[in-house]
Design brief:
105 residues, mainly alpha, two-stranded antiparallel ribbon, 59% helix, transmembrane, RCF1, membrane, Hypoxia_induced_domain
């Protein structure tokens, strides 16, 4: 908010409400595509997590003599490992883009 003094000694107040609403006008699909381009390994990590969970649910019936708790622990570790691996690759990719692939002035 900004206070303006005029020559006739009256005070007017102006508020800075001219905020660009372009980010609010963006649709869900285009926002998802933009975020995926900014951080490409996030959707890869989510897809891998979903794939491991789906595989674990598929193999749940044919687990043999393995206890349910042990099967769930193995699936949790596999899903977390995939997500952590995708995050690590994403950080390495970001560091590469920022430090090594940056054009020299």
């Amino acid at each position: 908010m900004e206070i303006l003094f005029q020559e006739d000694s009256s005070i007017t107040m102006s508020s800075d409400t001219d905020v660009s609403l372009s980010s609010y006008d963006e649709g869900q699909g285009s926002k998802l595509i933009r975020k995926a381009r900014e951080a490409p390994f996030v959707p890869i990590g989510l897809a891998g997590f979903a794939a491991v969970v789906a595989y674990g649910l598929y193999k749940l019936k044919s687990r043999g003599n393995t206890k349910m708790s042990l099967h769930l622990i193995h699936m949790r570790v596999a899903a977390q490992g995939f997500v952590v691996g995708a995050m690590t690759l994403g950080m390495g990719y970001s560091m590469y883009q920022e430090f090594w692939a940056k054009p020299k002035p």
